[in-house]
Specification:
Length: 391
């Protein structure tokens, strides 16, 4: 369940939300007028006087309690997450360029279908040494549906409960004076899986997958020329990762996985920002059924479209009506292809949608908002903090 946990952590490590001002409004009523005014000032931008978290994060030691609503269709369409996040801005010189803050978080999540998660982690760097690192850990109890083609039945939805304790460790080093980082990554999880149906487990799902360990050791290259970690407006990010599972990595499986993505952001005008995303994933041999690659697209339930190979292309167009407010529209196409299936025969999956953004922390370039998205047979809404393609 590394994929589910890392996706959950991606939501809250960059998270900030408009709900927080309610908590501070309650606190204001218990303080003196001068303290009230000082607190209110922390939530206003010195540039335009608008609601903004920048000063609060910078002057209140970067601490922010973050409540969020979870709207992932695969997790029951509704849930809640509470994260305690700590932003640590870096002291850097001009020649270092843009360096995002270190982010530490502890979080808990529960959703309408009974899925829950508890854990935390840190994303950080040592800019002078050219080192970046990530460390996540926690516990996941997830109720997820997977889809498989069964003989004489066709496509069937299979419901599972997956309990796992995933850990992710990631370390990379800058290559000379370039923006290229080379690194290693290790993920481990002990998983217990239960088939939530009265019928017998379909033969297409190996019984060995119900109680197993996965340990993946990988090498990656990451080239990041985006102008901002949270909500980019221009630049390019390229990432390539190859990992292996074997006995010596602590895994019960022997397989390899290759994954890569490219995110491109182009500023066509002062107000129009155009983004393009391309992604490819492939596994070699057989991982557990729940770790096959899947199409990760707004409007498409998580893990519904799996395959031995997945490819997708997506675009998001943002128009800034003012410094604070923006509208976005997005659309994408993807395919998930199984081993014995040709690319042309695989179903073409699509998504589309629109939403809005508000610049909630100008000093960090952090925008947040709500998206409404649709897919081939689903429809949903998503709270988006930072850019949806962040990982």
């Amino acid at each position: 369940m590394q994929t589910l946990f890392s996706r959950g952590f991606r939501i809250f490590v960059v998270a900030t939300t408009l709900f927080v001002f309610i908590q501070h409004h309650i606190a204001y009523s218990q303080e003196t007028l001068s303290k009230k005014e000082a607190k209110r000032a922390l939530l206003k931008d010195t540039l335009d006087g608008k609601f903004d978290f920048s000063r609060f994060l910078l002057e209140a030691n970067g601490f922010l309690p973050v409540p969020m609503i979870i709207t992932e269709p695969a997790l029951g369409d509704f849930g809640g997450l509470l994260a305690l996040t700590f932003f640590s801005p870096k002291k850097v010189t001009a020649e270092m360029g843009y360096v995002p803050p270190d982010i530490t978080a502890l979080a808990g999540m529960i959703t309408a279908n009974g899925t829950w998660l508890a854990g935390g982690g840190r994303i950080g760097s040592f800019p002078k040494a050219g080192i970046k690192y990530r460390a996540f850990g926690g516990y996941v109890d997830a109720n997820l549906d997977f889809y498989r083609e069964l003989p004489a039945v066709g496509e069937k939805k299979l419901a599972f409960n997956i309990q796992a304790a995933p850990v992710l460790l990631n370390l990379s080093k800058k290559v000379s004076k370039s923006d290229l980082y080379l690194g290693v990554q290790y993920t481990f999880a002990k998983s217990e899986v239960e088939y939530r149906a009265k019928q017998e487990l379909p033969e297409i799902i190996p019984e060995a997958d119900l109680d197993s360990k996965t340990g993946s050791f990988g090498f990656f290259a990451d080239w990041d020329k985006r102008d901002n970690f949270f909500t980019p407006s221009k630049g390019l990010r390229l990432n390539l990762l190859y990992s292996i599972d074997d006995n010596w990595t602590g895994s019960d499986y022997q397989y390899g996985k290759l994954g890569g993505f490219a995110n491109v952001f182009i500023t066509f005008s002062k107000q129009w920002i155009s983004g393009f995303r391309f992604e490819y994933q492939q596994v070699y041999d057989k991982p557990p059924f729940y770790l096959y690659p899947f199409l990760n697209m707004r409007g498409v339930p998580m893990a519904k479209y799996q395959g031995a190979t997945t490819t997708l292309a997506e675009t998001e167009q943002r128009y800034d009506f003012s410094r604070r407010w923006s509208a976005v529209a997005f659309a994408g196409l993807g395919k998930a292809v199984w081993e014995k299936e040709s690319f042309s025969d695989a179903d073409l999956i699509y998504n589309y949608g629109a939403g809005f953004r508000y610049l909630v922390a100008r000093a960090f370039g952090l925008r947040a908002g709500i998206d409404v998205a649709g897919g081939p047979d689903s429809f949903g809404w998503y709270i988006t903090v930072g850019h949806n393609w962040n990982r």
